[in-house]
Amino acid sequence: MTSPAIVAPSGVRRGRLGVGSWLVYVPLTILLVFAVAPLVLAWFTAFKSGDQIIQSPFLPPIPPTLDNLIEAWTVGRFGVYFKNSLIISVVDVVGMVVVASLAGYAFGRLRFPGQKILLYALLIGLTIPVAAIIIPLYVTMRDFRLLDSLASVIVADIALAAPIFVFIMRAFFKDLPRELDDAARVDGASEFQIFWQIMLPLARPGLVTVALLEFLWSWNDLLLPLVFLVTDDLRTLPVGILFFQGRFAIDHGLMTAGVLILSLPVTVLFLVFQRDFVKGLASGALKG
C-alpha cells in the first residue's frame, strides 16, 4: 500500500533567499550585532576578575566570579539604590495605570464639554521635552516642599508620561465595539460598572503595554532623580551608576556589574509579559 504524496501548497517557494531578502537581512544582522555585542561584553565583564578583564576582554569569563556584583551591591550601595528605584517604579506604574485607564476611557468612550481642548493640551504636552521644563519643575517641587523625596520623582514621572499613555489607552478603548456599552446600559449597568467589569478586562493588553513602558521610563530615568534627589540614601540606580563611575572610573568590572543590576529587572519583565506586550502593540494600543 503506497502512502499518499504530500503536495506543497501552491504559491509557496522553498529554496534560497532572493536578492531582495539578502538586502534586508544583511543590514538587519549587522545592526543586531552592533546592538547586542556591547550588552554581551558588559555581561562578560561583570563576571570577570580584574586580571581576566585585562588579559581576555572579549572572551567569556572562565571561571565566572560574583565578586563584582557583591561589591557593587554592598560597597557601592546598590542595594539601597535598587530599593529606591523599585519603590519609584512600582508606584509610578500603579499611578499611571489608574490615570491612563480612567482618562483614556473618558476620552475614548464618553463625550463631555471641553474634550477637544483637553486633547489639544495633551498633544502640546507630547511636544515639550523634559529638559526644557526641568527648572519650572524644580521650582514647583520646592514650593510644595517635595524636593529630596521620592514623591517628587513619582509625581513628575506620572505627570510627564501621562499624555502619551492616555493617548495609548484612548486609542485602545475607542477601538472596542460600541455594542458592548449599549448592551450593558440596557441591562442597567452604571458607567463605572461598564468601565470596571467590561472595558478594563478587554483592555488588558493595553494596560500591560502601559505598565511595561512606564516601568522602563521610570526605572531608567536619570534626569529627574539627579535634579530632585540630593541625599545619598534616596538615589536611584542610574544616579548611583553615574556617581559610581566618578569614584571607580578604572574598575570596569564594578561598572558593568552595576549596569547588569540595572538591566536585569527590565529584561525579566519583558520576558514574562512579552506576549501581552506584543498583543497590545498589534491590537492597536499605539495607533492614533
Automatic annotation (TrEMBL):
Keywords, ordered alphabetically: Cell membrane, Membrane, Transmembrane, Transmembrane helix, Transport
Entry GO CC: plasma membrane
Residues spanning the signal sequence: none
Protein's cellular compartments: Cell membrane
Membrane-crossing segments per the record: 22-44, 86-105, 117-138, 150-173, 194-219, 253-273
Protein topology in the membrane: Multi-pass membrane protein
Keyword set includes Transmembrane helix: yes
Claim: Repeat is one of the keywords in the record: no
InterPro entries hit by this protein: MetI-like, MetI-like_sf
GO biological process, alphabetically ordered: transmembrane transport
Domain ABC transmembrane type-1: 82-273
Similarity-based family: Belongs to the binding-protein-dependent transport system permease family.
Protein name: sn-glycerol-3-phosphate transport system permease protein UgpE
Organism of provenance: uncultured Thermomicrobiales bacterium
